[in-house]
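User: Predict structure, ligand adenosine-5'-diphosphate.
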Amino acid sequence: MSLIVKKFGGSSVADAGKVRNVARIVTDEYKEGNSVVVILSAQGDTTDDLIAKANEINPKASRREMDMLLANGEQISISLCAMAIEALGFPVISLTGWQAGMTTDTNHGSARIKKIDTARLRDELDKKNIVIIAGFQGINKYDDVTTLGRGGSDTTAVAIAAALGADLCQIYTDVDGVYTGDPRLVQGALKLDEITYDEMLELASLGAQILHNRSVELAKRYHVPLEVLSSFSGKKGTIVKEVTTVESMQVSGVARDNNVARVSLTNLPDVPGIAFKTFSLLSQQKINVDIILQSIGRGDTKDISFTVTKNLVTPARELLERYRDTLGYEEMIISEDVSKLSIVGSGMVNNPGVASKMFEALFKAGVNIQMISTSEIKVSVLIDKAQSDKAVAAVHEMFF
Ligand code: ADP
Ligand code: ASP
Ligand code: MG
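Assistant: Predicted complex:
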């Protein structure tokens, strides 16, 4: 007998027929004699719709009240799915994040899981119940409802799998697995049978929304075997694990992230300590920067550019305006019309020339590179957003 955690995303529970489909997949697993824990997302576009409703009433609503609202989406899914399983004649119980013992920190809107008290879960499993848990939500030390950030149900699933020592955590979605590029964007994207945690973590962090990046981090840390698969096709999915048996490819995937902005400070004094001053100011305000580019000095000035996620543009602008005299820059230029395009692959370390192949593809497609950043297993470039569709296609074509 195994313990299996299955997570179904919003598109997998979007309507009554799909909820019944989930009930069938879950009960088929249970009939095999396995214990089954199910994590659900909100139905279809429910979370977006709730955010729109909130904006209609108060676009500056507190993050606490936003969490109170958004947690409802998942609660609809779990109760409906439990009803569908009841209708099939199986023992089932649905639980909110709180009832499932999910404690988080107090950071509303992007809370981190602190502890999972599994007593209730184990008790329900001992009673042979199928347990259905609301993803994306928890409770903090003040007994307030929190949410884990968009896409956070994946993280709930992996955290529960780790806490229960599950034999497998399956993430069911609307595509057959992890592909070499977003199959909705890249024609000819190939499905991967296996991918390493590190590669998947890079892809997820660089914009491939197929998995929440923190879910991959947790899976790696607690050695949770992970499978990404479709809730519709019945095909074998992609296994995410420590080491893959397939020979490591130079590049295992291409990802694009449109949730970025570029901030440039021009004509800063070309003296020691300027980068330190700039980035320590930003880090004190918890403004996380990604790619950094500093020009060489011309005369006695230089430029510094960096990227941030779009939600940090306003705080970054306000902060740097306040410290304009201290830093001594001439102009601040902010662009939100940029995209970050990345290639990821653990085979890159031993294959010089991967980056230049990417640059060649971009050159041939007439795409200008604004910034570059590399690590052992990835190369990222910042480009014009309007060119990003064709850039993704060109880079994918070069490697696959
Ligand atoms: P869910 O609602 O099931 O959580 P998401 O929309 O969060 O689903 O994630 C699934 C989507 O991720 C797919 O529909 C696909 O468009 C997108 N995606 C982006 N990059 C990739 C990739 N490399 N492989 C597979 N899907 C990807
Ligand atoms: N419902 C939440 C969202 O849409 C969480 C999730 O689906 O993982 O972001
Ligand atoms: Mg998702």
